[in-house]
Structures
1.
Amino acid sequence: MSQRVRFTIPGYGQNAVLQLIVASSVGFIIYHCIRVGLVVFGQQAVVATSMVDAYAALQPLKGFTDHPWTLLTYGWAHHGFWEWATNMIWLYCFGNLIQNLVGYRQVIPTFIYGQILGGIFYVLTWYIPGLRVQPMSLLTANAGVMALAAAAVTLAPRFRFYLGDRFSIPLLVVAGIFVALNGLVNYSVLPLLMLCIGGLLAGFLTMTLLKKGYRPCTWMYRIGEALNNVVT
């Protein structure tokens, strides 16, 4: 008799940080597999990238109005490997802290709120009169990670990362380095800067509501549980 063996990762169901990293990794792989597949079938690399970006990446002005769902998809893939890798490291740093302090159910919704509000700020900035920036498509989890950073600082501004018995680094220093690095990279591109600000604001507001007794993250899991009950 044959038996089916289901592969599971211990604790995966209660580890939202790991779930986000896996989802981002899968999105990164799918995006580049599709793009490479188009190149294999005869498309030029630039054309292939623009074809995939049109349906997955966040784009300004008419590109967004034609494909508004990209507000929900742009944060699950990246154009470059190193951007993806560094975002995942920062995501683990801030997301794991939130998960340990207030539970895993606060991590994914906070990340999504950051992506949505950051994306809205990004799109609206393109409508500023006289903005002299070349339109660009956007694939990045940066706004979501910004939300996690702001959420972590809002929850525990005095927290310290201990790297040994005597050496520790304040959370404010780690978050400050993260925000400063993004500011240095994006300061000359206003839409990208506004994306980061939107993410930070989303994280701050989410955790502020949580500290006041509200539950801004539970509705997502309730919908997920309801859909799971229907399917199963």
2.
Amino acid sequence: PTFNVESSIGEDSMKPARIEEQLSQVAFSIAPAFAGKEIAVGTCFFYNHQGRSFLVTNWHNVTGRRPSDCSLMSKNAAIPDSLIARVPYTILKDGQSFIQWKPKGLRLYTDSDNQVPIWMEHPVHGRSVDVVVIPFKEEETSLIIPANSQNLNLVRLKMYPGMDAFVLGYPRGLSAGGRFPIWKRASIASEPDIDIDNLPKFLIDTATREGMSGAPVYVQESGFWAPEGMKLPEGGRFGRAQRFAGVYSGRILAEDHFLAQLGIVWKEQAIVEVIEGKKKGISSFLL
């Protein structure tokens, strides 16, 4: 699929086109909607795999249901039939380049009865892995950068507990000027090589909020570091390095959100497994 213009929604504000951090162009905001009415906020991004582009977000963003028990998340029992995405483009105005975010619509079903979804889910664990992908033809005129783009100069860093991490999303719909994502600082809170609950996920320690679901997560090393598989000091390098780690999907629930402040990150391998598994999703209207 491709995005369609949502003619009923105005364009978002403009910002100067030159920005210092390319990772800020990875995430973009989405609003699950029914019949054109927005019912929630979230985040998504593109991911490249074997020459193809895929839109990545959470299962609960496209279904409006909690993965744990399939219960509806909206207080009005609304189920999304589309996503409204704020997509960045370059425009010229008075001889200067600006970024403008244009709302675009994406139907989540190929039929008018909302029975045939466009997304794919995990081939083994289904909705227990809160990740979906949508095969997508990326718009050449947009400024979106895939999360694993070679242009980001990412490094295969060794991940470990306590390592710095950043979640790039839209907490409660907030943005960092225009529609740039908020960078929420975090640290890895579990052994990233170990699958929690036998699922491809690990935990981060951070005060994230609603609206960041579906956000890309990056880990970072600064100073003197070595790529995965190399040792210090022989393989060491100076500076800053980043690695794409996965997709954020919410917090571990507790009666008080401040008791734990632990977030769930689905590993990059989970995205690849969904893409390669090619398992079609099940309509939320049938669950």
3.
Amino acid sequence: MKNVPKIDLGLTGYDELFMNDTERMETKLPHIYDIPLELIDDFPDHPFKVRDDEDMMQLVESVKERGIITPVTLRPKEDGRYEIVSGHRRKKACELAGFETVKAEVREMTRDEAIILMVESNFQRSQILPSEKAFAYKMRLEAMKRQAGRPSKENSVPVAQNYEGKTSRELLGEQVGESQDQIRRYIRLTHLVPELRDYVDEGKIKMRPAVELSYLDEESQRAVVDEIDLNQCTPSHDQTIRMRKFFTDGKLTPEVVSAIMGEEKPNQREKIVLRGDKVRSLIPKNIPVSQTEDYVVKALEHYSRFLRQRAERDSR
């Protein structure tokens, strides 16, 4: 994963995490509350998965021993409940540890401000799946566009993206350390059916073939999934390019998908490697190198006939 800028949580030092309420009021820092876990709702369409893996178990043990060091960030809701913006794993760890409350900073934020903070805070994770990046980039880009407002007359970009002469995609690319093209590719993954996104997350389908498949409609993508399940083989980049071309021309049917997927790919062909020195020592010197393959094939044909004839004699 590429380096991404650290999120500014508004803290000037670790001492702030351990201040009491009076000290926080004096230094004008956010108040930390103990919020009941039952009053906290998940962030809508949260793109990052909270896994019950070994890392989570270690976090649970840490929380049992020391509590959570960094409070979660919550956004108040109109119904008196709270929406978690940052700290989904910490909240889950508190639940698994048997806690009833979690230390939290409650902050008034707009929906778009919450989306941007949610994405930034989760990008501090060590492992992020391609599908998680895809939906996170999409959500954050849309929030940035809405925050920028309508473009000025001097800005020729048709969508609201006026950031000091830069488009929102350019700015996002600088913030997360990705090129604009790579961000576009990730966002295309959001157009895949879940099964194909899973193949991307598992590394069975690479980014470029996945992007080509993202331009197919759901029916065509389902046909691809069926062929993958049937043949236990994923399509190559070249195959997905041709599928997209057939789809654009209105000619991509399940039969065409099956025909393309049924082709033998170069990396599927069984390769036989013969050591040059061994083979050459058995070939007459008057046979040029360019004719070596023909000579070996004829020799194998002759030997095959010999074995067949011997088997016939032995069976009499």
